[in-house]
Automatic annotation (TrEMBL):
Transferrins are iron binding transport proteins which bind Fe(3+) ion in association with the binding of an anion, usually bicarbonate. Residues 24-326, 333-650 form the Transferrin-like domain. The keyword Transport applies. Residues 1-21 form the signal peptide. Keywords: Disulfide bond, Ion transport, Iron, Iron transport, Metal-binding, Repeat, Secreted, Signal, Transport. This is Serotransferrin. It comes from the Eukaryota.
């Protein structure tokens, strides 16, 4: 009985999550990895080692808090990021030159002349079943590009669809009994072992030489001496040299990455721990291969905090993963609303083809739309720039002039950014420094990007945190001076739960919020759209603004450094002319989003642009209609505006985390 009790207590200790500040518990999957982990812990005492039988077991216990980290490949970064685990990549391997991960390529004999669109009925050779270069990446890519037609498991298995597409194949590792056609081209037992002459990348190339017509392998597995005999099939229907694999491949395997729970403090502790260990110890594998980290790695890269599995793996890789599962797309659209007030308005519209969902900020909407969890949202030009970096597309734009709604001309959708001050305040362009400022939101168009860009170019003052004494820029770090003027919710006690949030939960968020910050919050200047003051004064505004007069406010601008201008002189006294707010979606959602919104405009008309219980909810209240955009994101934004944005991001340090995460290569190779 005493022995049983001791055993049970020991199991209970293992099952309890450890307190913050204790060892970083690394999950390993083999005795060889455990041996290496223990060796590393001798040089880093804060490292603990936790053996589990599989990657899935490791992912599960990290999710539950019984371990803290594991290094995995792209497929398992994808798995760890799924809803039932919600793990995030926090650190990535950096690779030695020439040893980067696999680019899956389709290798053919140079003497042939078919393209990737002619693969049906060909004899295929694969390195191994479910390996990146031989199966997952090429087959997933061929399905996502609809070269192989597959309707999903309700119709037939993926393997059966592939066996019907090729005439015969050699896919070592697949069940010969279940899919005989996928083993007919093999010379052995169709296993991923030496018992099959065509197993592995070398075997797939031998299969190609001996009667095969296409081989699916990793780019670095083609024998150097044989390269002149082969070419690669590209997804655009062309052929390229085998050395041009970066521009002609069927998918790229991402770097191996450390995944963990979303916990900034834990991520920092993990990175500091690994940084203490010599590279020669981290990236070597005595008694095995790629133990804990890739042997070909030379260092580690800390990923931006906002990075999730989708942002790290990139859109193309996720499309391949989803294609292997035949994920169906819905015809109705899921709208991403920022905050409760927008969600309430969306629900009240009662549009049957729109499902109303909610996120805490636009920065949260962007990756959700990228992943397919949501489909569309509206945002300003600054966020269009960020969304463009993440591969989203402008579908429609707000038009503020009614007579242009029927013209089909969306080129004129734009507005002026103005700096509003109280009449008689004495604030001018020349004495703006060290004043209190009100902003629509961090990295928003009128409220942040434009004033920052103009001050940087005109005054060489590129840091708004230092230029202004204090302010309210919702979305800024809560303990910064740019949150000091923020209020949070009116009904919160002190606004402690919503202060400085980049949503309607913050009283001073958005155009109306920035103007209200000027009126009530102690601001000296508000950066807003030119139409805001007229629409909130002289009896036009909500209750808090009912006594405001437009004549009590003025504009300041670089062109009039020592004086102010009247509110209606915005065309000659402004900080920039910028593009209108726009609706963003994925490329595959463009037609559905445009269809649903056009139909909504017909059915409910101007109600789409009204905001009961708030202002500028979902769309700007000044919107007269939405117009379809048939141009690139950069053309929509215009070169002048892009120049302003990019002047703000001269170095990586100034890039928003979301833009950094979307543009960061998911592996880095040393020069």
């Amino acid at each position: 009985m005493k022995l049983l009790l001791t055993t049970l207590l020991g199991c209970l200790v293992l099952a309890l999550p450890l307190a913050t500040g204790q060892k970083i518990r690394w999950c390993v999957r083999s005795q060889s990895e455990l041996n290496k982990c223990k060796k590393l812990s001798g040089k880093a005492p804060d490292l603990g080692c936790y053996l589990q039988p599989s990657v899935t077991d490791c992912i599960t216990i990290i999710k539950e808090g019984f371990a803290d980290a594991i290094t995995v490949d792209g497929e398992n970064v994808h798995k760890g990021g799924l809803k039932n685990y919600e793990l995030h990549p926090i650190i990535a391997d950096k690779y030695k030159k020439g040893q980067e991960p696999c680019y899956a390529v389709a290798v053919v004999k140079k003497v042939t002349d078919f393209t990737i669109n002619d693969l049906s009925g060909k004899k295929s050779c694969h390195s191994c079943y479910k390996m990146s270069g031989g199966w997952n990446l090429p087959i997933g890519s061929l399905i996502s590009k609809k070269i192989i037609t597959w309707e999903g498991v309700d119709d037939k298995s993926l393997e059966k669809a592939v066996s019907e597409f090729f005439s015969v194949s050699c896919v070592p590792g697949i069940s010969k009994a279940s899919y005989p056609n996928l083993c007919k081209a093999c010379k052995g037992d169709c296993s991923c072992t030496p018992n099959e002459n065509y197993h592995g990348s070398e075997g797939a190339i031998r299969c190609l030489k001996n009667g095969g017509e296409v081989a699916f392998v990793c780019h670095n597995k083609i024998p150097e001496a044989e390269k002149p005999n082969y070419e690669l099939l590209c997804l655009d229907g062309t052929r390229k040299s085998v050395d041009d694999y970066k521009n002609c491949h069927l998918g790229k395997e991402p770097a191996h990455a450390v995944i963990s729970r979303k916990d900034p403090d834990l991520s920092e502790r993990i990175y500091k721990l690994l940084s203490q260990l010599p590279a020669s110890d981290l990236f070597s594998s005595e008694g095995g291969k790629d133990l804990m980290f890739s042997d070909s790695a030379s260092g580690l890269i800390r990923l931006p905090e906002i990075t999730d599995s989708f942002l790290f793996l990139k859109k193309d890789y996720h499309e391949i993963m989803f294609a292997l599962k035949a994920k169906a797309l819905s015809r109705h659209i899921k709208w991403c609303n920022v905050g409760h007030a927008e969600k309430n308005k969306c629900d009240s519209l009662g549009i049957s083809d729109i499902e109303c969902l909610m996120a805490s900020s636009v920065d949260e909407c962007i990756p959700k739309v990228m992943r397919g969890e949501m489909d569309a949202f509206a945002s300003d030009g600054g966020q269009v720039y960020a969304a463009d970096s993440c591969g989203l597309f402008v579908a429609m734009a707000e038009q503020y002039e009614k007579d242009k709604c029927n013209s089909g001309d969306a080129n004129a959708t734009s507005y002026y950014v103005v700096a509003v001050v109280k009449k008689g305040s004495g604030v001018t362009w020349n004495n703006l420094k060290n004043r209190n400022s009100c902003h629509t939101g961090l990295n928003r168009n009128a409220g942040w990007n434009v004033p920052k860009g103009v001050l940087c170019m005109r005054k060489n003052e590129c840091d708004l945190y230092n230029f202004f004494k204090k302010g309210c820029a919702p979305g800024a770090q809560p303990d910064s001076n740019m949150c000091e003027l923020c209020k949070g919710k009116e009904k919160d006690v002190g606004g402690q739960w919503s202060k400085c949030k980049a949503s309607t939960d913050e009283m001073f968020y958005g155009y109306d919020g920035a103007f209200r910050c000027l009126v009530e919050g102690g601001g000296d200047v508000a950066f807003i759209k030119h139409s805001i003051v007229p629409s909130y004064t002289d009896g036009n505004g909500p209750n808090w603004a009912k006594n405001l007069k437009s004549k009590d406010f003025e504009l300041i601008c670089p062109e009039s450094p020592n004086e102010t201008k009247k509110i209606d002189q915005f065309k000659t006294c402004n900080w920039a002319l910028v593009p209108a707010h726009a609706v963003l979606t994925r490329e595959d959602g463009l037609s559905d989003v445009v269809r649903v919104l056009k139909d909504a405009q017909i059915k409910i008309g101007p109600h789409l642009f009204e905001s009961p219980g708030g202002r500028n909810l979902m769309f700007s209240d000044s919107t007269k209609c939405l117009q379809e955009i048939n141009k690139s994101n950069k053309e929509f934004l215009t070169k002048d505006y892009v120049d302003i944005i990019e002047s703000n991001y001269k170095t990586d340090k100034n890039l928003p985390d979301l833009v950094r995460a979307c543009t960061l290569n998911n592996y880095v190779v040393e020069e």
